[in-house]
Amino acid sequence: MGTANVGHGIVVGIDGSDSALDAARWAACVARRLGEPIDLVHVHPPTSDNGTDPSEAVLTAAEAAVRGAIDRVEVRRSTPSGKPDRVLTDLSREARMIVLGHTTTTEWQSMVRRSDVVSVANHAECPVVTWRSREGFQPPDGRPVVVGVDGTEVSAGAVEHAFATAAALEAPLVAIHTWTEQSTLTYGEGSRFTDWTAYVEHRREEMKSHTSGHTERFPDVEVSYRVERGKPDIVLLEESKSAQLVVVGSHGRSPLAAAVVGSSSQGLIHHSCCPVMICRAHHRSETEAH
């Protein structure tokens, strides 16, 4: 079993939007809990027509937002040049987490033109959080962290980071596995069941078995296991209404490929009611780092 990503620092992409400021506030709260510095990054074009650069003003506003949300957190600022998604993806190689405001594109628009948020989520080498909320900035509280579990290697990475984050936030963790009749064909003659009680209990016990190492490592995290009938994107979107964070794994598909084969992470990026953490399968582990 791997252990959580050991990159250093929480990087926040700052573009001057209100969403980015709220993302910075949220990231600062998490950084304080994790004992990490926060890196406010405003990426500007390599050249400027009028010779002016608003980066410092943008970062000053972001730092003020951070200081207004929480004290005693180390804040670092940088203004690299380049394309935002590429710069942030490069920074993800050493970061513990990337935090961004919500995407301003629809799912269809993300398929036909670049969305920096979607691009970073699909290519970063550390977890990426896209900040979303229906009620503006809210600091970490007693609401649960929700993680989608499907038994795959991609899901295992999400579970790993979900436990670590829930422990830092002192939040309960809800592990959810979803199913439909079509997804149970490998379980005997599942498609013929009328009473799914045995199947649901089987999946719940599997989830407990797969997460036993994490429960030992994070004994203070209160974990509940649920097996829900329905498509994962629909179930997790509903859960986002009462969660403080939803964590999912991702294959890192392009928006077009995700639209063709389906992707819970893409749907959550565009529609979740709370922040979403996307964890790709190749994230570093402590065993790999050492």
TrEMBL record:
Q: Where does the sequence pass through the membrane?
A: none
- Determine the domain of life of the protein's source: Bacteria
Give the InterPro entries listed for this entry. Answer: Rossmann-like_a/b/a_fold, Universal_stress_UspA, UspA
List residues of the UspA domain.
10-129, 143-280
Q: Which family does it belong to?
A: Belongs to the universal stress protein A family.
Instruction: Kindly provide the name given to this protein in its UniProt entry.
Output: Usp family protein
Mind giving the lineage of the organism this protein is from?
A: Bacteria, Bacillati, Actinomycetota, Actinomycetes, Mycobacteriales
